[in-house]
Structures are given as structure tokens and as C-alpha cells.
Design brief:
There is one protein chain. The chain has 496 residues and is mainly α. 54% of the residues lie in helices and 5% in strands. It has a two-stranded parallel sheet with strand order 1-2. The chain has a two-stranded antiparallel ribbon with strand order 3-4. Strands 5-6 form a two-stranded antiparallel ribbon. A hairpin with a 5-residue loop joins β7 and β8. The longest helix has 32 residues.
Length: 496
Amino acid sequence: MFRYGIDELTVKKVIRIANGDLEATLTSEAKEKVIACRKKVEVIANANKPVYGINTGFGPLCDVRISTDETNLLQKNLLLTHAVGVGKPIDKTLSKLMMICKVHSLCQGYSGIRLEVIERILYFIENDLLPVVPEQGSVGASGDLAPLSHLFLPLIGEGEFWANDTVVPAKEVLIQHHLKPIKLKAKEGLSLINGTQFILAHAVTGLKKMEYLLDLADVAGAMSIEGYQGSSAPFKDELHKIRPFPGTIEVAERMFALLYRSQNVDSHENCERVQDPYSMRCIPQVHGASRNAFYHLRELTEIELNSVTDNPIVLSDTEAVSGGNFHGQPLAMSLDYGSIATSELGNISDRRCFLLLEGKFGLPRLLTTGGGLNSGFMIPQYTTAALVTENKSLCFPASADSVPTALGQEDHVSMGSISGRRFNQVLGNLEKILAIELMYAAQALEFRRPNTFSDIIEANFKVIREKVPKLEGDRLLKDDIDAMIELVANQAFILK
């Protein structure tokens, strides 16, 4: 059981809540915090002192006072005018994650929103009423204004919900569920659309995928080393203790375990080759650096999962501070770092593919014995090269850019929404690159029989061969590549 606004939220917990594997509840303790903060907002809203977003306009209109009678209309107008997203809709799971993250933030008791608004969002979550949210339009400061506006339009009877794979007006869905549109009151619209939940949802989904792909990259590297008949000596514990980066040590231990008791590797440990190329020998350093980036991003994401990121923050009956907790820079920079780390996993994987095609150390050129008439595995490496280059182009840090908005009032923005979307694009490309490397490695292993490999490599070899047979003569490889990508996407490989 997870308690909104009380317990610490983690990447794994928020995914389990979204999947329905972890029950999340609104306790009396959280309700009391929400109600107490709402009372403070009502006091402030009826006072003479101007407080941003409660009795003033927004952005560059913060110097315009709003009367008490117009306060409610102000909040409705806020959602309507800020829902200007464009592009394809985000995945439905992202919409659900955004709502879960927003509820947890609102339940901290600093946002001043009414309990009934939070309970309506929880109803949407628990009944899989998932709003349609366009993927483009946020600059990642003042919160993810456009996507969050689309996310919460259905609260007021506007916007759209998903019904399976079709889009249905929110008004129709509310009627089906016997729900009336909510009339927002002072500060509530601002509490809903200020925040980093769009960036945060992309970070969560990306971290989940990256954690798996980090382990899979180690498996692919180990299989390639088996196929290349490389050395396990570069993974010795003594070597990495004297340069003790956490990620490097972890990968070295994994590589040693993945190659443990390999008859194939052991039979060539004392061959005349002095050293292997970097893409084999430096797997701990390169994969390990990517792991360090993963740990950094996860740490910052989990801080953000438990933070209050709207504005202004209600501190007392008389004080609502207009600050910058909505600014996405802390996640934007680390997401860009995550993209670079992910891209490098693909970069080194492509180099291992190339090595397996060279025809050295007992492997036939292009991994086929019928070269000339047959092209063998020549061309899939073109695909990995294309994907690697695409990933490099996606690694330009969006967080390094800023375009002033709101007539200059919001003069530095994070572009973190772009960082989050790119991170997931790079991860999607990495899935395909590793799928091709694993296909190559399995073919290379065929030429090392009757040698046996480590138990885990043998098990993964079997997983591949159940879907993709050995290449004897040229055939349509697109089907093989698609089957490999499906194995990766379904996380069918044995990692430990």
C-alpha cells in the first residue's frame, strides 16, 4: 500500500501504481494537510494583498489585480488558454504517470487545491480515464504548462479521453460516469498546470527501459566476446579496484560472471593475441560510465517524484511565495546526460558488430561461409550505423538552449520536455542496435562449436535460436531483425 503525500515515491513504485500492481490511497493524514492548506488559500484570496496567481494575472500579467468575483473564472481560463499542445499524443501510460505524480505532489500540502479536485484525479487514475495529451508545446519552465493543461481539461468538462485507441470528448465520458465538471476555485488551475510532471513521466519510463538495456548491453558484449574469442582478463576485480568508479566495478563483475566457466573463452586465454580492441576490452569503462549516468538520473528523478513543483507555494495564512520550483533544469540536464550515456551503449555495440564481420580469428568474413554469392550479415551493420548516427544527432543537449517566453517574464526556460522525449527516442534506437548485435553474436557462436559457453550465454543463445535460425545462405533478414527487436522489447533475455 502506498500513501499519497506521506510515503516516499520511487521509480519502481510509481510504475507499479500505474500498472495496478501497487495500491495507492489517500489517507486521512494527507487529506488533513490538503484541507489545511486550502484554508490558507481562501484567507489569502480574500485579503487585499496581491498574491501571484491567486488574485493576480499570470506571467507578464502578474501586475493585473483580479477581483474576488472573477477569481474562479481566472482559473478556468488558465486551463483553456494554456492547452496549446501540438503533435502526436503521448503514450497513455505517460498520461497516467503524470496524474500519479501530480497527485503525490499536491498531497504534500503546499499547493492549496481542494480535496475534491484531487479525488476526481484519483477517480480518473483508478478507472483508467486517461486524457489525451499532445507531445509538443512545453518549454519546461513555469512547469509543463501545455501538456498539463491538456491533462486536466477533462476536470472542467473539456479536452478528450482515450477509449481504447480512439479519442472521445471528455464531456461524453463524464456523463457516462455520472460526473459533473468541476468548477475550479482560487489557485487551483495554477496548481494543476504548474509542475514538471511531463518531464518526470518521461524520466520514469526512460529509466525503466534504460535499467534493462544496461544489463542487456553487458549480455550482448559478453556474447560478442565469446564469438570473437576475446579475453576475460580485462574484467578482473584487481584491475578495477584501483580505479573504483561504481559503474565500472559493477560491469566488470557482471562481465566476469557472464563469461564464468566458458570453455570457449578459457581455451583461448593463452593465445598469442596480446589484447582485444577497445569495444571488447573497455566494456567496463564504457558501459560503466553509462551506469553512473543512470544512477545520477535516477537519484534526481526520485527527488523530483517527492517534490512540490507548482507555484506559488503556500507557506502560511499570509504567505504564498512565488518561486521557481516549477523550473525543469535539474531534470533537463540529467536527461540530456542520460541520452549521451544511452547513445554510447549503441556506439560501442555497433563497433562490436563491425569486429564480428571482419573475418578474424576463425570467423568467416561477414559471418557466412558462402561469401561472394552471399552477403551474409554485411548489411544489418549499415542499420546499426544509421541508428548510432541518429542517436548522436539526438544528443545535442536541449537544456543548453533557452528561448524567452511570456514577454520576457519567463526569460530562461529548461526545454526539459524535449530532453525527456529525446531520451526515450535514443533508448528506442538502442533496443534495435542491441537486437542486431545479439543476432550477430549468436551467428558467431555457431563457428565456435563444439566449444561450450557460460550457462547464461548458452541460455540466451537458445532464446535467440527459438526465434531466429542460423544463417546458412542469404535470406530476408528483415524478419530476423524484427524478431530480435521483439525479443528485446519484451525483455525475453536472461540477464543474471
